[in-house]
């Protein structure tokens, strides 16, 4: 699969505290993993040291279904980085994961950027690999089912 966004964008990297390393390792393996509290069994995203539901520190990383539904979206028309100056419009979606307590993740929608984006439409994860000499990473994008 060709990359959705052009070369020249900054490479994502784990946070300085390495809290999100399991997420990035999961994407490299084409798995969608998010945090889950072992005390109350609730999922959460983004990564935190403490459960947002019960304040427990007993969090693990769990693989979740790679399917969701569009909760909201933004059609981006202006370049937010010099590498995007010739990109044109693209659509960023907020995807709700029903199989993981309806947590929401952000990603690009791989579709015609000017087409209607139906709220509630089902989407599935697409893993976009970026091999590198020093840093390889994989982005999670979304496509309509």
Explain this structure to me?
The structure is a single chain. The chain is mainly β. The protein has one domain: OB fold (Dihydrolipoamide Acetyltransferase, E2P) (Beta Barrel), CATH 2.40.50. The chain contains 1 helix and 8 strands. A 5-stranded antiparallel sheet has the order 6-5-4-7-8, covered by helices on one side. Strands 2-1-3 form a 3-stranded antiparallel sheet. Strand 1 (33-37) and strand 2 form a beta hairpin. The longest helix has 8 residues, at 21-28. It is globular and about 45 Å long.
CATH architectural type = Beta Barrel
Task: Enumerate how many helices there are, as a single number.
Answer: 1
The low-pLDDT segments are: none
- Broad shape: globular
How many strands, what sense, and barrel or not for the largest sheet?
A: 5 strands, antiparallel
Please give the domain count.
Answer: 1
Write the layout of secondary structure elements.
Blueprint: H1 21-28, E1 33-37, E2 43-44, E3 59-63, E4 67-76, E5 90-97, E6 103-109, E7 122-130, E8 137-144
